Structures are given as structure tokens and as C-alpha cells.
Amino acid sequence: MKINPGKKRIKENLESADKTSKSIDAFFYIVIAAFYPLYMGLAIWAALVRGWHPLKAFVIMTLFYIFAAAVVSFVRYKAVDSAYDLWNPRNIEGTRREDYSILSSMVIQGRFEEAEQEARNRFIQDRSPDIPQILGDLFIQEKRYADSLRWFQKGVLIAEGAQRLYFLERLVELTDRHIPDKAKLTMYLQKIRRDFAGTEAAEYTSKRLREIA
Fold first, then answer.
1. What's the per-residue H, E or C state across the chain?
2. Is the pLDDT confidence value at 189 over 60?
3. For residue 108, how far is the Cα from the chain centroid?
4. Does residue 80 contact residue 24 with C-beta atoms inside 8 Å?
5. Which sign does the torsion angle of CA 30, 31, 34, 35 carry?
6. Cα angle vertex 125, ends 122, 130, to 5°?
7. 154 and 121 Cβ atoms separated by less than 8 Å
8. Which end of the chain is more exposed for a tag (fewer CB within 10 A), N or C?
9. What is the pLDDT of residues 145-182, one digit of tens each?
10. What distance in Å separates the CA atoms of residue 151 and residue 120, rounded to the nearest whole number?
11. What is the mean pLDDT of the chain?
């Protein structure tokens, strides 16, 4: 059971953002390469009109082009990264995208134990709730519900705010539909009602608790 059916999943967000970013990167560098001959032709022509030596003009304008391309690349990277963070509801930074890329690759290949070991190593280095969230969602996709439950349980211990609610919702979904456990389901519902009192999620959990009482 998913308490907030409108919430987008992290896997969908990250995959879409990653594909978009790669497509933009490819297009951007193609444009830079394509404009270089035109730019140099115009630059050398202008230099000859001014009486500059062609070789001197070539060197100076090439250096200027490289500098301008580097500045534009930096600005483009920051703009795409900012747009990604605004679109992603958890503001996951570049390192989180790297976590997702590596872990998802292992899970897709069926290397589940390696994925868990890699996640544990990263979790030790960076006690971020994003890592349990990424792996928990990936395991749900693979229907490895017990593994997903373990990672969401790790995450809920350190997450705060909306991300803590997300973990609790996922734990409710798992213990209600995939690994039925009325005691744990009741416990997670009570946590949502207590920690997020006054919210729509709390109202829903109150109703659900009455249904399973």
C-alpha cells in the first residue's frame, strides 16, 4: 500500500534526469565542435583585414575559443545540475546520481550481493539516507522485498522530514502488501500518525489503523 500515490519514485526521477543530462552533454559538445571551423574562418578573415599574421591570429583565437567554451561548459553544467536538483524532490546531488548509477548497474545485472556490499561501503563513508533509499527502491523493482525492507529500515533511522515520511510509507507498503506483518504495519502507521500529525498522511494512517484494528 502506498500512502501517497502521487509521489514520483526516485528511480524514475534519477533515470530520466541522467538520460536528459547525457543527451544535453552530447548535443552541447557537438555544437561546440561544429562551430569551431566557422568561428576560426571568420576570426582569421577578420585578422587578415586588420593586418594580423594568420598564425598569430590562429593561436590567439583558438585560445580564446577554448577559454570561452570552458566558461560556457561550466555555466551549462551548473544550470543543468540546478534544474536537476529542483526537479528531484529530495535534492539529490551529483554524488547521489553516481551512487544510483553504480548500484543500479549491479542490480540490473543480478549482482545483488555486490550491490549490497557497495552500498554498505558507501553508507559507512557517507551516512546519508539516500543510499538506503536508492537500494531499497531498486530491490522493490526486482521484487526482492525482504532486502528492500532491510534497507528502508536502515534509512528511516537517520532520515528526517519528507524523506523520513517516504521511508515510512514504503515500509507500510511492504508490510501491508508484500511481506504481510500486522504488528510491523501497525507500528509504522503509528509512527506516521505521531511524527506527521496534521498532515494528509497522518489522516490516512489514522483511517488505516481503524481498518486493521
1. CCCCCCCCCHHHHHHHHHHHHHHHHHHHHHHHHHHHHHHHHHHHHHHHHHCCCHHHHHHHHHHHHHHHHHHHHHHHHHHHHHHHHHHCCCCCCHHHHHHHHHHHHHHHCCCHHHHHHHHHHHHHHCCCCHHHHHHHHHHHHCCCHHHHHHHHHHHHHHCCHHHHHHHHHHHHHHHHHHCCCHHHHHHHHHHHHHHCCCCHHHHHHHHHHHHHC
2. yes
3. 17
4. yes
5. negative
6. 55
7. no
8. C
9. 999 999 999 999 999 999 999 999 999 999 999 999 99
10. 10
11. 79
Which three cell numbers mark 5?
500515490
Return the residue matching grid coordinates 489514522.
206
What residue spans define the domains of the chain?
Answer: 10-87
Q: Scan for cell 563513508, then name that residue.
A: 125
Closest of 80, 91, 172 to residue 129, by C-alpha: 91
**For residue 11, pLDDT beyond 90:** no
- Which residues, 6+ apart, have CB-to-CB distance to 211 below 8 Å? none
Compute the chain's Rg from CA coordinates.
25
Packed helices 94-108 and 130-141: angle between N→C axes, nearest 10 degrees: 30
The pLDDT score that the predictor gives to residue 65 is 73
Distance in angstroms (rounded) separating the CA atoms of residues 155 and 13: 19
Helix axes 10-50, 54-87, angle to 10 degrees: 160
